[in-house]
Specification:
This protein is an alpha+beta fold. The chain contains 7 helices and 15 strands.
């Protein structure tokens, strides 16, 4: 069951319009990514490990245009162009291509991610995986779906039977806070640990029970805005590494089925097995 209340959210008609625009924009952007994947694209380096392609920019433009036509007074925060639009209680937070490195290498794990905030609270999440044609939607107080069918987190009760997923920040080569210590700790505690390379997909896979838990450091709002709604509406739990409230603007994320959450937080606060 969804964990959040629905106090002080837009009326149903407005929410339905926003959801329709978000879904249509995500599908349109996904079609653009598929076209680039088929016909080729140009890759540029933001830095040594952080890539951007013309598929990113074209996809983002399509989403921004769709939002602008439907809601010209809404604010937008997008990965490639930053913050734009008028100051508004509504903020669209978009990643036009989550998993750019995967996309650039032809590894089919990437997605379009569109989240919507109202008065600072995430009320809608839409994630579309064009490779698998999977559309994940989470709406505050309304549950979460995959291609229109309700989804729920797993019921794995203990960490030693759990399949986890994580990721690594772009500064992994230079930062001591690079998640390798936590990766080592979880690798000897969980049944398995995977690395997909697309946080939006990681969160959606927790939501539908493919993964039991996910943790990562230094993610950006566009990585987690949509997926966080989908996880909580699928009955999951989100927090920081101490078990405190999760914020898409923070640097720590733990997402789980709820049953293993305490164990995950406990592991994240242990000394490294390598130490």
């Amino acid at each position: 069951m969804p964990q959040q209340t629905t106090d002080q959210i837009p009326d149903r008609s407005t929410r339905e319009r926003i959801k329709t625009v978000a879904i249509e924009a995500a599908r349109q952007a996904g079609a653009i990514l598929s076209e680039y994947a088929k016909n080729g694209f140009r890759v540029e380096h933001k830095d040594a490990l952080n890539l951007v392609t013309d598929a990113d920019t074209h996809s983002e433009q399509a989403i921004v245009d769709a939002i602008g036509r439907a809601f010209p007074d809404h604010e937008i925060l997008a990965e490639e162009r930053g913050q734009a639009g008028k100051k508004s209680p509504y903020k669209w937070i978009i990643d036009p291509l989550d998993g750019t490195t995967n996309f650039a290498h032809g590894f089919p794990a990437y997605a379009v991610s569109i989240g919507v905030e109202y008065d600072g609270r995430c009320i809608l999440g839409v994630v579309f995986d064009p490779t698998r044609q999977e559309l994940f939607v989470g709406e505050l107080g309304q549950g979460a779906t995959l291609n229109g069918k309700p989804i729920h987190v797993s019921r794995t009760p203990k960490l030693d039977g759990a399949l986890l997923v994580t990721g690594f920040a772009y500064d992994i080569r230079v930062s001591k806070q690079n998640n390798l210590d936590h990766f080592a700790n979880f690798s000897v505690r969980a049944q398995g640990v995977r690395r997909m390379g697309a946080a939006a997909i990681d969160l959606c896979y927790v939501a539908c029970g493919r993964f039991d838990g996910f943790w990562e450091l230094k993610l950006k709002p566009w990585d987690t805005a949509a997926g966080s709604v989908i996880v909580t509406e699928a009955g999951g739990r989100m927090s920081d590494f101490k078990g405190g409230p999760f914020s898409i603007y923070g640097i720590e994320l733990v997402a789980s089925n709820g049953l293993i959450h305490h164990e995950m937080v406990e592991v994240l606060n242990r000394p490294s097995v390598q130490g």
